[in-house]
Structures are given as structure tokens and as C-alpha cells.
């Protein structure tokens, strides 16, 4: 393929796999240059090359075995137009994907199984990813999509981001961990995995996922429905036992604080995620405001973060010995509200119905995912050419 695929593309030979091979060869460089904001002439040439190759590959409709590669090609194809802010094209791409998926399932009678698989990255990716799953489940409860039994195939040897949090979703998703059954179901998983990380389909309409999340949450709020998750008695009891060991009296109210920093998963050469980070020291006035009113502040995060200075009624849980997956869940579920930056951890609090104070937020479209209980403070952006801040419409 290394020798023949580029030649086939150059000679415009009708060989879909060759076009996919060449596109996949250029994609890592494309994404790296995009993250570095290196969008010059070379970037444009690479972008156009990828588009041309992916269009050739996508035009050749796949068989059942090729579905995962075809869906991934459409994802990368769509993301190029997402980066260009051509959202109409992005939506059009995923409308075609959904039409093809529905037709394929009907043609092969897969629709009669009434099952869908959840992508593995909902268990292994960033902790905020289940936000899409939450919206997908709510859409069914609202009658906006047909009922499907949701299944997650999870090899027990695979590392899970937060196993306790995943356990709470087992009320709505059947988690299969038997290796023999996983082997039997894997061929079906390739065809019947719901691509809800990119876009969502309901009422025969395709929407970008974060817009879909907002519309679903809006109706959920209007109907005054309860949160999908509630803290178990076991986690409640052991959580408060742990808080008392840290000096927080039973029944005291506390606020969670999570200020994103670069240590967890930012690429060292990436500018794309740095705009989501913030300086924890700028939150000290907020911390003191809470403690002055009798509350406690518990700082969430990981041990790579900048330590907090010692302050009364403040626990730097990110650097404590009691940090665990279940305690993360307890704190997010039991706090009075959560002060958050543009990172996925606050979605745990949202899933349990806890209000969010979203601060320093970029990208600003994240506000569409919030509920009527929440406050949203976007990070302001400076317009270099006009020497002023962007207004909200421009932002």
C-alpha cells in the first residue's frame, strides 16, 4: 500500500482503499498543524488532498465489514468542515451517514434486533464524554428517538477512566464483560454502534452533538424531570465518613472547584487546549467568598496541578491521599454547586442534578450543554485587528 496507493491516487484509479490509505497517512499531520494554528499554504494543500481522497473513498458504499472504516472516514471528513466553521456541510455529511446507517440496518434486518452499542471511548476516554450518552438516553425518555437496548462491550482488562461512575450508568446501559460473549457480539458492534460522539439523530433530524444536548436538556428542564443519576446509600455513607476524616463536619455544605491545567492531557505542542486552562490563584476571591459564608471548598483535579495555598475550610483534594474514583463521584454529586472551567469533570455534577458555575469557558458553544440551573461566564477574547474584545455574537 505504501508504494501503490499514492500511485493509484495520482493516476486517479478507482481503488477506494488506496484513497483511504493516503488520507489516513496525511491526517496526523493535518491535525497537528491545526492544533498549532499552522494554517498556511502547506496546510491548505494537505487539507484539500485529504478531502479529495476521503470523498473518493466515501462515495464507494461499504459492506458490513467495512462500516467502522467508513464511519471513521466520514468523521474525519466532517471534522475538516467543522474546523472551517462550515457547519451546514458538517451536518450534511452526518445526515448522509445516518441515512446510510438506517438503510443498511433495514436491508440486513439489523433493525429488528432493537439494540445499539455504545462506543468504547465512553468508558475509556475523557470523564466528560458520557454527557453525550446522558443526552441520548434522555432523548429516548422524551420520545424523540426509538427505544433501543444500549450495550457496551468492555474487556475487563481494559483501563476505565472512572469505574465507579461507569457503574452508575449501568442502570441504563448493559455492560458485557464476558470475553466469549464479547467475541460473539463484536461483529454486530461494528455495524450497530451509535455515532453519538459526533452528532445525534432524532425526529429524523441531525444536529451537532452539543446543540442536541442543549435542546434535549431544555425540554428536560421544561418538564421538570429529575436527574438520571442519584448517589447510592453506600457511596453517600462512605463519602461523608471520608469528609469527616478531612475535618469537615457531617451536614456541612461544600462547593467543588475544578480549574483545568495543562498537566492531564494537553499535547506539549498544542495551542488548541491551552485556551481552556486557567490560573487557580485567580479563584482565591471566590474561595474566600464561599468560606466567609460558612461553606467549604474542595478542589478537584489530579496531582500534576498547582497546589493551593493553605486556607481555612479549603481541602486540596487533588493532592490528598483520599483521592479515588468513587470519592470523585461522591464530591461531584453531593456538593451544593460546582465551579468549573472548560473541562469534562463538571458533567458528573450535572448528571446528578448539581448546579454549575461555568467560568473562563472556551469554546463558548459549551453553554448550549448547560441547564437552567447553571451560570455561564465565557472567557473573553481579544480582537487583535480592532484592538477590542469580541462581543458575544462574534464570540
List key phrases describing it.
395 residues; 6-stranded parallel sheet; 3-stranded parallel sheet; globular
Please report the number of helical segments.
14
- Run of helices and strands: HHHHHEHHEHEHEEHHEHEEHEHEEEE
Instruction: Please mark out the parts with pLDDT under 50 across 5 or more consecutive residues, or reply none.
Output: none
Kindly report the average pLDDT value. Answer: 92
For the largest beta sheet, what order do the strands appear in spatially? 8-7-6-9-10-11
| Shape label | globular
N-end to C-end Cα span: 44 Å
Helix content: 40-55%
Sheet of most strands: 6 strands, parallel
What does this structure look like?
The protein is of the alpha/beta class. The protein has 14 helices and 13 strands. It has helices at residues 4-10, 16-35, 41-59, 67-83, 87-107, 121-124, 130-141, 163-169, 179-192, 209-222, 233-245, 284-292, 325-334, 346-351; strands at residues 115-117, 149-153, 174-176, 199-202, 205-208, 254-258, 296-299, 314-315, 338-340, 356-361, 375-378, 382-383, 388-389. A six-stranded parallel sheet has the order 8-7-6-9-10-11, with helices on both faces. Strands 1-2-3 form a three-stranded parallel sheet, with helices on one face. Strands 4-5 form a two-stranded antiparallel sheet. Helix 2 packs antiparallel against helix 3 and helix 4 (67-83) runs antiparallel to helix 5. It is globular, with a radius of gyration of 23 Å. The chain starts with a helix and ends in a 6-residue tail after the last strand. The model has no long low-confidence stretch (mean pLDDT 92).
Amino acid at each position: 500500500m505504501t508504494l501503490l496507493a499514492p500511485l493509484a491516487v495520482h493516476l486517479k484509479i478507482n481503488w477506494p482503499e488506496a484513497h483511504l490509505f493516503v488520507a489516513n497517512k496525511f491526517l496526523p499531520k493535518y491535525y497537528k498543524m491545526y492544533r498549532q494554528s499552522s494554517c498556511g499554504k502547506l496546510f491548505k494543500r494537505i487539507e484539500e488532498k485529504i478531502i479529495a481522497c476521503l470523498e473518493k473513498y466515501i462515495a464507494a458504499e461499504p459492506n458490513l465489514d467495512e462500516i467502522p472504516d467508513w464511519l471513521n472516514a466520514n468523521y474525519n471528513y466532517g471534522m475538516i468542515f467543522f474546523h472551517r466553521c462550515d457547519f451546514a456541510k458538517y451536518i450534511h455529511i452526518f445526515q448522509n451517514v445516518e441515512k446510510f446507517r438506517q438503510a443498511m440496518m433495514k436491508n440486513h434486518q439489523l433493525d429488528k434486533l432493537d439494540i445499539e452499542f455504545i462506543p468504547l471511548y465512553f468508558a475509556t476516554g475523557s470523564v466528560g464524554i458520557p454527557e453525550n450518552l446522558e443526552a441520548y438516553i434522555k432523548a429516548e425518555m422524551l420520545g424523540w428517538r426509538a427505544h433501543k437496548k444500549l450495550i457496551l462491550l468492555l474487556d475487563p482488562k481494559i483501563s476505565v477512566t472512572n469505574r465507579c461512575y461507569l457503574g452508575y450508568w449501568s442502570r441504563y446501559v448493559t455492560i458485557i464483560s464476558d470475553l466469549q460473549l464479547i467475541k460473539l457480539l463484536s461483529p454486530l458492534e461494528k455495524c450497530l454502534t451509535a455515532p453519538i460522539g459526533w452528532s445525534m439523530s432524532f425526529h429524523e433530524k441531525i444536529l451537532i452533538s452539543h446543540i442536541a444536548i442543549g435542546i434535549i436538556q431544555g425540554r428536560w428542564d421544561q418538564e421538570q424531570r429529575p436527574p438520571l443519576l442519584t448517589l447510592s446509600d453506600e457511596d453517600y455513607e462512605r463519602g461523608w465518613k471520608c469528609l469527616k476524616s478531612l475535618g469537615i463536619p457531617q451536614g456541612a455544605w461544600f462547593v467543588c472547584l475544578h480549574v483545568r491545567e495543562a498537566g492531564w492531557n494537553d499535547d506539549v505542542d498544542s495551542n488548541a487546549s491551552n485556551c481552556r486552562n486557567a490560573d487557580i490563584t485567580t479563584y482565591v476571591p471566590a474561595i474566600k467568598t464561599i468560606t466567609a459564608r460558612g461553606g467549604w471548598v474542595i478542589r478537584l483535579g489530579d496531582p500534576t496541578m498547582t497546589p493551593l495555598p493553605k486556607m481555612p475550610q479549603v481541602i486540596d483534594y487533588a493532592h490528598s491521599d483520599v483521592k479515588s474514583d468513587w470519592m470523585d463521584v461522591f464530591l461531584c454529586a453531593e456538593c451544593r454547586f460546582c465551579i468549573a472551567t472548560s473541562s469534562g469533570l463538571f458533567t458528573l455534577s450535572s448528571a446528578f442534578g448539581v448546579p454549575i458555575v461555568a467560568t473562563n469557558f472556551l469554546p463558548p458553544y459549551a453553554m448550549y450543554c448547560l441547564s437552567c440551573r447553571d451560570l455561564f461566564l465565557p472567557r473573553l477574547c481579544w480582537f487583535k485587528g480592532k484592538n477590542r474584545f469580541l462581543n458575544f455574537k462574534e464570540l
